[in-house]
Design goal:
elongated, Peptidase_M20, 4-stranded antiparallel beta sheet, 35% helix, Aminopeptidase, alpha/beta, 16 strands, Alpha-Beta Plaits
């Protein structure tokens, strides 16, 4: 089957869907119009589906066999003002598809169209996951809780993300750990307020907070192997009302990013120990909140090898970039990968001749729409090969 040729034949549809989504972006759990477009497409093509995770969709293509492959796309946008001058720039003030989820959804729709067209040739089933709220809390968690991986049981799952640093026509893939785990945190430190000229009367929470921040970095620099990346970033430090007043309390927020389950547990444990120890030693009190956010994303070894074999049927091996380093960014596909063998890859969308060079999550972000056909073809080939491999 020439899946790339099939994808080329629906290029106009892919571009139309992507631009419709791009012009009408919606934030997490508000993707009502986005979902309606997807559901209309599914109904018109006789593809079964049901709603999940508020605005998410689980669709199902029944082939000839019990094995089932899942394919996922996220569908939400970001609260960013679109400053492109293109005809398909966002029409919604303050919202934009600045991370390529419009392309992800369109690619999955194209994949569904082709696989449904040839479903009699499939030696198993295909489940299609349109995930809401990836940019916030992760609709994947809710979808899994609502049993999208069951009935029928999903044996493996595939996902992609567009990448503006990889040239259009190429893909990137990483063996093992792909994305970091995330733990946002809040530290509230309470001391004793006083006049700025009489610090001896205070328990200064600003001084305590500053000491905490400095000492937290020792976890990264002195307690983890330098070959294993991890990050503790302080994003905000709030406290005080005037130059000559030592405040009673301060609040510090930030994120922890780690690359393994073991390091995640260790860093959180040491984080709490250091904060509590420093604050107590400097006569203050503290409250620590560490959120259990997105886990690490791992590519399953068998799924990784299978996908590489499939990809080599669609593009030249020279166009497959084997990524050396994982991303410190997070990805809610990790929730699916924790439940089933999974593979996640990056689809190149950069095209300097077309001026498509801007970073994701920026107000000039765009993609080379010619890249979408490759994403469709890769999804289709990988799904067929997975189902063929008994």
């Amino acid at each position: 089957m020439n899946f790339y040729g099939e994808a080329l034949s629906i290029k106009d549809n892919l571009v139309y869907w992507r631009r419709e989504f791009h012009m009408h972006p919606e934030l997490g759990y508000e993707e009502v119009n986005t979902s309606s477009i997807i559901k209309k497409f599914l109904r018109e093509n006789g593809i079964e589906y049901y709603e999940t995770a508020k605005t998410g969709i689980c669709a199902f293509i029944k082939g000839n066999g019990s094995k089932t492959i899942g394919i996922r796309a996220d569908i939400d946008a970001l609260p960013i003002e679109d400053k492109k001058t293109s005809s398909y720039a966002s029409k919604i003030q303050g919202m934009m598809h600045a991370c390529g989820h419009d392309a992800h959804a369109s690619i999955l729709m194209g994949t569904a169209f082709i696989l449904n067209k040839y479903k009699e040739n499939l030696k198993g089933n295909v489940k299609l996951f349109f995930e809401p709220a990836e940019e916030t809390t992760g609709g994947a968690k809710v979808m899994i809780k609502e049993s999208v991986l069951e009935n029928p049981y999903v044996d493996g799952i595939i996902g992609l993300h567009v990448d503006e640093n990889i040239l259009s026509g190429k893909i990137g893939i990483k063996k093992g750990v792909v994305n970091a785990a995330s733990n946002p945190f809040i530290i509230k430190i309470k001391g004793k307020g006083a006049h700025g000229a009489r610090p001896q009367d205070s328990v200064d929470p600003i001084f305590i907070g500053s000491s905490v921040i400095l000492n937290l970095q020792s976890i990264i620099s002195r307690e983890l192997p330098p070959t294993q990346p991890a990050v503790i970033t302080i994003g905000t430090f709030h406290g005080g009302t005037a130059q000559n007043i030592i405040p009673e309390e301060v609040e510090i927020t930030g994120i922890i990013r780690t690359m393994t389950v073991e390091h995640r547990k260790y860093v959180i444990k040491r984080f709490k120990e250091i904060v509590e120890g420093m604050v107590k030693s400097l006569r203050g009190q503290c409250i620590i909140e560490v959120e259990e956010s997105y886990p690490c994303l791992y590519n399953d070894e068998g799924m990784y090898d299978s996908f590489l074999n499939s990809a080599s049927k669609v593009i030249n091996r020279d166009d497959i970039i084997h990524l050396s380093n994982p991303s410190m960014g997070v990805e809610s596909f990790a929730y699916f990968a924790m439940e089933r063998p999974a593979v996640f890859y990056y689809l190149g969308v950069r095209n300097e001749e077309k001026g498509i060079i801007h970073a994701a999550h920026s107000n000039l972000f765009d993609i080379d729409e010619d890249s979408m056909m490759l994403g469709v073809a890769l999804h289709c080939q990988a799904a067929q090969d997975f189902l063929d491999n008994r």
